[in-house]
Every structure is written in C-alpha cells, then in structure tokens.
Amino acid sequence: MAELSIKIKIGNREYPMRVKAEDEERIRKAGKLLNEKIKNYQSQFEIDDSQDLLAMVAFDCWVEKLKSEESSKISDDFSLREITKLNQLIANSI
After folding, report:
1. Is 38 among the domain residues?
2. Residue 40 lies in a domain
3. Quick one: CA dihedral 42, 48, 49, 50, positive or negative?
4. Cα–Cα distance between 69 and 63 in angstroms, integer?
5. How far apart are CA 48 and CA 56, in angstroms?
6. Can you tell me the distance from the alpha carbon of 88 to that of 1, in angstroms, rounded to the nearest whole number?
7. 23 to 7, 30, 33, 55, 62: CA distances (angstroms)
8. Count of structural domains within the chain
9. Fewer Cβ atoms within 10 Å of its own Cβ: the N or the C terminal residue of the chain?
10. Could you tell me the pTM of the whole model?
11. Whole-Å CA distances, 64 to 50, 52, 67, 68, 83
C-alpha cells in the first residue's frame, strides 16, 4: 500500500498528511465538504472567528453522523424483521 504526501486546506490553514493512495479521494472530498460547511456557516451567521466556525462544523458533522447511525439501525432492524418473516414462511411451507 503506497502512501502519498498531500496537503489539505481546512479554513485558513494547510495540513500536511500521509494517506493511503486508495483513501486520497475520500480525504480530499472530506476537506472540500468541510470548507463548504465553513463558508456556509460564515455567510449564514456572519461569523469570522475560525475557532467558532470549526466548532460549529464539528458539531454539525457529529449530529449528521448520529442521525445516519440511527437511520441505519432502523433500516437494519426492519431488514432483520423481514428476513425473520421470510424464514418463518419458508419453514412453514416445508
């Protein structure tokens, strides 16, 4: 697994990092999305303080992650119930 040296700009700073080649696209996309969220909060709330912007973006990202996990769990639970029903139908028809 080859590692690449890249720089990701988040807000007003560049961060050098070493990443696996297969992760580069994902990491660059994450940096782009972070910067878009920062700009959105900056224009929406007229905030210039970098620390406040980063804190708001971090909070927003965690809320999205928790929401996604909850949605995934609901979907997993539903799928498990449906599989159980199908198994019961198959068992009853044998």
Report:
1. yes
2. yes
3. positive
4. 10
5. 12
6. 46
7. 13, 11, 15, 25, 21
8. 1
9. C
10. 0.73
11. 21, 18, 5, 6, 28
Cα separation of 21 and 60, whole Å? 28
pLDDT given at position 94 = 76
Q: How far apart are CA 15 and CA 64, in angstroms?
A: 24
Dist. CA 94–CA 25, nearest whole Å = 50
Does residue 61 sit within a domain? yes
- Token pair of 11 as six digits: 């807000």
pLDDT number for residue 28: 97
C-beta of residue 6 within 8 angstroms of C-beta of residue 24? yes
Residue 11 belongs to a domain: yes
For tokens 């920062």, what's the residue?
38
Quick: pLDDT tens for 32-90: 999 999 999 999 999 889 999 999 999 999 999 999 999 999 999 999 999 999 999 89
- What is the Cα Rg of the chain in Å? 21
